Amino acid sequence: MRRVVSSGVLLVSMFAVPAAKAEVALLAIGSLTGSSAGPNADLSGLTGTLENGLPGNILGGMGSGIAYAGGNTFYALPDRGPNATPYNSKVDDTVSYISRYQTVNMNLTATPGGALPFSLTPTLTKTTLLSSSTPLTYGTGAGLGNKADGTPLGSGAPAQNTSNTYYFTGRSDNYGPGNSGNPTNARLDPESIRVAPDGKSVYVSDEYGPYVRQFDNSTGKLIQTFTLPSNLNVANLSPVGATEISGNTSGRTANKGMEGLALTPDGKTLVGIMQAPLIQDAANASKTLRIVTIDVATKATHEYAYNLTTGSGVSEIVALNDHQFLVDERDGKGLGDGSAAKVKQLFVIDIKGATEVSKLSGAALAGAAVSKSGPFLDIVTALGAHGISNTQVPSKIEGLAFGKDVTVDGKVEHTLWVANDNDFVPGTSGPNNFYVFGFTDADLAKYGATLVPEQIAAVPEPSTWAMMILGFCGLGFLASRRRAKAALV
């Protein structure tokens, strides 16, 4: 029996699904709970403990962002670190957790006759730490209380810093003079990740600035920080988010900055979306968020408006083509919140011909929102169809990526990968889960949308580097298609 969901309607069939019938189906679920370094440990090689007593190599939060990197490889992005473990409210319980992303091999195997068409085994293969070659601004800890062990909080600068490597961290006091967009600030709250077409770099969006930064994929070193519209920045900074909110009349809401980031398939345009309305928009456009496009070559930016439907905010955006996107709209309910999930829905939006709103506000802003249809997928309903109660649906469904195509019931389907942020507290929020959904061109056609596969250079698995160097030394080799057809039967 195969249970599938089509636009929020449950269908149950004991037979192969006809190719003409449009549907979005759950194909597999996998969890990542550790690595070769041990349970709940990543491969950063970091030792010692953070200010709250947790290990520096703690594994978690990986569903804040997810990106496909070719083959079976995905990048999974943790946010600012384990601040769900209380120890010091003067810094919002943030610690000097070094910003990073995880390389994960996703082994998707067909399981004929199984409860789901595929089984999924994620394996962590690499951890990349994010840093700058030039100095960053850190906090001193002065007047901000103590660590969990009772000793003074101390500097926010990681002990691993060197004369040419300065690591970004999640500590909320790691900032200097100026507004929140100061590019030398060391604090980073990563929320989304995308891979450049050549595979040599990644783009990361953040909530503290907000920032969009580009990092070298092999070293983790900062390449550039894009200048975003000034209306997104807050002028008065504080290590405590609630204080930042009360101390500013414009800019992003604390901890609700650029939550989502897309890259168009041609690699030319980054598209970021804010999690919540800007402070100056909240009073008169309380359901309207801002989308920011960035021309990668010229750095030019434009703003567009997005109106929420039933969710309290947006967690991710992923590109279907150069003007249509899937947007992850959700509430904060579900596993981790101690409540029942209600809204985890994906909508199709189109920015083609949309009104530029950088100079708009209030009703004019809300009235100029991009076109929107759906939901394309209701995740709570989809998981419920497979016996996952709404109390077990993760509260923070935050990562979206397209993977390679697969063959299901004799027809080729595209794959959509969905991940959750478990806030580094698996005992409360469950493990880092990855949910794989299959869909066809017909599913998108119902919303007037099409999927254009992104071309991206192959990113080799760490274990295959030696073989590739020996096998291809002196020879050129072609970049692989980002989503090669995978006939898994």
TrEMBL record:
Disordered: annotated segments: 149-193
Record-given protein name: Esterase-like activity of phytase family protein
Annotated Phytase-like domain residues: 59-424
Superkingdom assignment: Bacteria
Secretion signal, residue range per the UniProt entry: 1-22
Record-annotated Ice-binding protein C-terminal domain positions: 458-483
Gene3D superfamilies named among the record's database cross-references: YVTN repeat-like/Quinoprotein amine dehydrogenase
Claim: Oxidoreductase is one of the keywords in the record: no
